[in-house]
Amino acid sequence: MRWKALLALGKAIPLTITIVSGVAAAQDRDQMVQSLLTDARMAQSRGDFSQAAEAYRKAVALDPAIPELWANLGLMDHESGNHLEAVKSFEHAARLNPLLFVPQLFLGLEYLESDNAGAALPLIENAVRLNPGDLQAALSLGRAYEMLDQPGRAAGSYFRATQIAPTNGDAWLQLGTAYLEQVENDARIMTSAWNNSGYVKLRAAETFADEDKLGSAEEAFKAALNTPSPAPCVHAELGIVLLRESKEAEARKQFETENQAASHCGLSPLGIAVTDIAQRHPDMALKELTVVVNADPDFVRSSLPLFRGAVSPDQAQPFIALAQSSKSGRDLSFDIGSVVHRVLVSGDLSINANSDYEHLTQKATGTHESAEQLYASARFAQCDEALKPALDRLPPSQLRLLASCSFSTGDFKTASIAGERLKSSLATAVQGLYWESKADQKLAVAALTHAGEIDPDSPGLHLLIGNAFRQQRRWSDAEAEYEKAVTLDPTSRAARLGLGIALFTELKTDEAFAIDKSLLDEMPEDPEANLLAAEILVQEHKFQAAEPFLLKCHNVKPELLPRVHVLLGRVYGETNRPSDAIAEYKLGITMDEDGSLHYQLARLYQKTGNENAAAEEMQLSKQLREQWDDRAHLDLGQPLTETNRQ
């Protein structure tokens, strides 16, 4: 009876007991969770992320329905390097609340760290939509696009990052690097699909001129003129090169020919004015330049650096004196004499840039003239402002006009966008690639320069700028940046290796080898340092000495592995192992752009008596060689160790 009574009592009040105990349990749980959160915050404040993660792990066990707790747990695991657990926590938080910013961003970052940019991209895009003003999200989206070989979109993301944080040097650096990658991509597409186009030949000629290879530039511009449909301004650009070669009479003829062609190329009147300075006709030059400046001062600022070295200080002095004396009584906000002195005499090219991405131009308000009329009268800034508001709706003919106007007045951002629009159509693709590559190169230089101004004492910044210059094959500039990085951080292996590569490319072999030896003394198995040592020894024809270094290179980055095979092929070929050499050359054949590797294979096949294979390789070598000249001078991006140095 006693047990029956107790059971009955128990059955009489179970609901009350449950409610009271449930409230108490909830209160206890909340107190425990709050205590754990306090512990987590304290651990986090002292940098003990593992301890903070454990506190959050206990908290989510007590209350698993709160997505913010899972997100915080993921952050702590992320910070402590526990990436697998971090991914699980971020995924759980995202399932509980897809609108939380942190799980989207950091789950994307986890995928980026594991080289899975495809999985990262939609997550980081979501993060940017949820918080457009977050710097880390914008930078991470740019990184994802770069990893997916979409440098144009990467540049857009990095540009947004510079707007979010204008003084962040890394954002400007990444922006400049993305623009350089886009230039490289455009060059490769141009030379592979439109190798005989006048625009491609013009771009090759412009690249020679930028590199101060004036003789090669002159020949390339003449080749561009001999195409069925020469691009605009070729005569004027040839005239600039001739003027820089002190061929004033020939230059004037080209500028006048451009004028007669009714192309409305603004470089022609500017070129005639500079020619008059060179030929000591200051009165005529001042009159001509005043007309050009009054039409669009930004055009003069943007274009005058093209004439660097075209006049000597003695030739320029009469013009500068006249311009300075003529300033009184004239309302000119643009000091022509000072600008000419800075650019043509002092060689200060910093004037070449309305590069702060806040381009201010003359507005087209109050005029009823068409964009075509504005362009024809060299009012490029007004033409730019007239067309830019309708950029998304312009037909191809107007896009071409906008690209020319915006580039001429120094609005390179708009010129790049117009080029991007043009290249989306097959009919105008090569023109779009031309304008986009020209504009992006200007934007890249401006962004990299600004990055250096923001943080001049950052070794990492100098390293990255050095890498960017190396991509452009501006070896002396790269060397200078690597030197700065090494001075600021003598322990930086990346900066020292970059410096060694730059020195080697400039044929400063002893200095390069000394740096590389110090790297190998520290880490004998470093594959990239071994590769540089092999490059140096092969160049010096020390083939047997190079072989041990090459055999330590199989763990180099995948993009460098073909170069290792090519060097091994060279070593085996020069040490009388033709079969081994053939095998290695075949493994590295993908990097043969000029036909030299196929030529080496042909010789090796001849040596082994395989005449049919030799003839086939010789034919392939000839075909590639015929395509090489334009490509070699448009492709601005190959690092040293991917370049065939046969």
Describe the structure.
The chain has 646 residues and is mostly helical. Among the domains are: 160 residues, Alpha Horseshoe (Serine Threonine Protein Phosphatase 5, Tetratricopeptide repeat), CATH 1.25.40; 143 residues, Serine Threonine Protein Phosphatase 5, Tetratricopeptide repeat (Alpha Horseshoe); 121 residues, Tetratricopeptide repeat domain (Serine Threonine Protein Phosphatase 5, Tetratricopeptide repeat, Alpha Horseshoe), CATH 1.25.40.10. It is 72% helix and 0% strand. The protein has 34 helices and no strands. Helix 25 packs antiparallel against helix 26. The longest helix is centred in the N-terminal third of the chain and has 32 residues. It is globular and about 90 Å long. The relative contact order is 0.05. The N terminus and C terminus are likely disordered.
CATH fold title of the domain at 27-186 = Serine Threonine Protein Phosphatase 5, Tetratricopeptide repeat
State the major sheet.
none
CATH hierarchy: architecture of the domain at 27-186: Alpha Horseshoe
Query: What is the mean pLDDT?
Result: 86
**Fraction of residues in H or I helices:** over 70%
State the end-to-end CA separation: 105 Å
List low-pLDDT spans: 1-22, 351-366, 630-646
Shape: globular
Radius of gyration equals 32 Å
- The number of helical segments is 34
Kindly provide the name of the CATH class of the domain at 27-186: Mainly Alpha
Relative strand content: under 5%
What is the assigned CATH homologous superfamily of the domain at 27-186?
Tetratricopeptide repeat domain
**Strand count:** 0
- Specify the structural class: mainly alpha
